[in-house]
Amino acid sequence: MPQLRLALNQIDSTVGDLAGNAEAVLHWTRHSAEQGAHLVAFPEMMLTGYPVEDLALRSSFVEASREALRALAARLDAEGLGELPVVVGYLDRSEKAQPRYGQPAGAPQNAAAVLHRGELALTFAKHHLPNYGVFDEYRYFVPGDTLPVVRVHGVDVALAICEDLWQDGGRVPAARSAGAGLLLSVNASPYEREKDDTRLELVRKRAQEAGCTTAYLAMIGGQDELVFDGDSIVVAPDGEVIARAPQFAEGCVLIDLDLPAAGPVPAGTVDDGLLVDHVTLSADPVPAYEPELAGGYAERLDDEEEIYSALVVGLRAYVAKNGFRSVLIGLSGGIDSALVAAIACDAVGAQHVHGISMPSKYSSDHSRDDAADLARRTGLNYRTVPIEPMFDAYMESLGLTGLAEENLQSRLRGTLLMAVSNQEGHIVMAPGNKSELAVGYSTLYGDSVGAYGPIKDLYKTQVFRLARWRNRAAVDRGQTPPIPENSIVKPPSAELRPGQVDTDSLPDYEILDAILDLYVDHDRGRDAIVAAGFDPDEVGRVLLLVDRAEYKRRQYPPGTKISAKGFGKDRRLPITNRWRED
After folding, report:
1. CA atoms 502, 504, 505, 506: torsion sign
2. Left if phi > 0, otherwise alpha if psi is -120 to 50, otherwise beta: which for 391?
C-alpha cells in the first residue's frame, strides 16, 4: 500500500496582502519539505485572504491574485521546492460563461490550485457555494463543475473546498466514484460556539461517504468580525479520527498515511455531472519507510476557554492587521469593561492596553475603586479623568434633564475616549454586550463609540460566566485573577443617576437572555416564546425594545462573532419597519 506524508498548514492570512500571504506559503512549504512531506496544503483562499467580499468584483484584484499565484509557483520552483506539490487557495475567474447563474465569462471563482515544478498543474473552483449566515458566495462567485484529482506517488487525491463537504452530494460521492485514495478539503470555515463538535461529525460522515481517508484543513486567525479556529481533522474511511489539530493555534500538522494504490485513470463525468479533471504528478510510490508522524490528537478546550480564546484571537487579529499597536478602554468598574480589558491584555499585552476612568458625580466609590483594582491586577496603563467639569459646562448651557442628562454623561465619555485616541493613536474598544445591543440599552456616540466591540456577541449572562472562568484560569496557573470580584458580584449599573441598576429598565438578565436567544438567535415569534413559558407582557416588551433598536445596532462597530447569529451580516433587518410581533 503506497505511503504519503501529508502536511496540513493550519495558518493565518490577511485579506489583500498577496505578497505577505505568498511569503507565508513559501515559509511553511519550506518547513513541510524539511519534514519530508510529499504533499502540502494551505487553507481556502490563502493567497488573497478570506473572505474578500466585494474585492472579488474588482477585475484588478482578480488579476493580481492570478498573477501572484503564477509568481508563487515559479518562486517555489526557483527555491528548490518545485517537486513538492502544493495546494493553495486563491481568487480566480471563470473562462466560460455560465448562463444558469447569469454570469458572463470572467466571473470570479473561489478557487484552488496545485503548484508543481513551477507551473499550475491543476486549478479548480469551489462547487457548492454557501449562501447563508455570513456567506454571500452566490453574490460573488460561480461554482466549479469538475472533480479535481491529482495522482501523487501512486495515490489519487481528490480535492475539494470547504462547502463541498458541508453540503450533500457533489465532490464527496464523486470521490468514491472516481476511486480516490484520499479526499483533501481546504477550508476557511469561521468559528461558532460548539461548531467543533458539528465539524468533527461532518468530517467523519463525509469520510465514510467518500470511502477514503479524508483530510479537512482549516484556517486559523481573524478577519474583521470572523474568527477561524483551526481544528484541522484527518479521518479514516471507517470514520475513525486519525489526527486532530489544536484549536486557535497556528502550525503544521504532519501525518504519515497508508493509502490505496491508484487504479486506472478515472475519466468522464461522475456524481452531480462533475467532470473528472485528472493530472498525474508522480505515478510511482515512494520507497517504503517507517511511519514516524501520527498527527496526534490535540486536547480539546472546554466551552468557556474556547469562547474566550476566540475573543482573544479575534481582537488580536483586528488590532494587528489594521496597523494599531495599542488599545484604549473606558473603565467604569463594571463587568463589561473589566472583561474587555482582560481580553485586550491577553490579546496584545497589558503594556499596550490603556484604561481611563471617567467618573461623574453619580459614580460610586466602589466603581472607582474597582477600576483602579482592575488596572493593578492586569498591569495596564491607567489614568483618571473626571467628566464633572465638562458635564457642568454643558448643563449650564443647555439645562438638560432626565434621559438627556443621563446620556450626556455617556457622550462626554465617548468624546473623551475618541480625543485621546486621536491624540495618542490607540484604537478604542466598545464594551457593549449582546443583551444591551439587542434592547438598545446603550447611548449612541457615547458608550457605543469605538472601532471594535470584543464582547458584542456575548449575552450578559455569558459575560459573567467568562469573567468567572478567566479568574479561575488565572488561579489554576498561579496568577493573579484579572477581574475584581466586586465587578462580578455587584448588580450591573450604568450609574447615570443616583441608585440606578440595570433591572430598573430591563428584566433579570437570566430571563432577558433566554428570551433574546429565542427571538434573535432562533427567529422565534412572540407566540412561540410565550409558549416556551415566558410572561406574555415581558416578552412583548422585550421584543418591542429589540425591534426599535435596529438603527442603533447599525451604527455599532464590528466585533468578534462567536454565535450562529450575531448582529451584523448574520441578521439583516430593515431599520424602517412597522411589523411588530403582537
Report:
1. positive
2. alpha
| 3-state DSSP helix/strand/coil % of the chain, to nearest 5 | 40, 20, 40
> pLDDT tens-digit profile of 125-175?
999 998 888 888 888 899 999 999 999 999 999 999 999 999 999 999 999
Give the H or E element holding residue 329: strand 327-330
User: Is 44 part of the annotated catalytic residue set?
Assistant: yes
Catalytic member of 137, 162, 456, 565: 162
User: For the chain, which residues score pLDDT lower than 50?
Assistant: none
Query: 3-class DSSP state for residue 205?
Result: helix
The one-letter code for the residue type at 58 is R
The catalytic position among 23, 34, 44, 561 is: 44
Q: How far apart are CA 341 and CA 207, in angstroms?
A: 43
| CA–CA gap between residue 222 and residue 288 (Å, rounded) | 40
Give residue 37's pLDDT: 97
Do 283 and 154 meet the contact criterion of CB atoms below 8 Å apart? yes
Record the pTM.
0.93
Instruction: Please return the burial class of 240, using the count of CB atoms within 10 Å of its CB with bins 0-12, 13-18 and 19+.
Output: exposed
Catalytically annotated residue among 83, 119, 126, 137: 126
Rounded (5°) CA angle 314-572-567: 30
Give the residues across from 156 on adjacent strands.
Answer: 151
- The C-alpha cell 471563482 sits at 109
Gap between the Cα atoms of 407 and 392, Å rounded: 14
CA distance 331 to 358: 7
Active site residue 162: yes
Residue 147 is predicted with a pLDDT of: 96
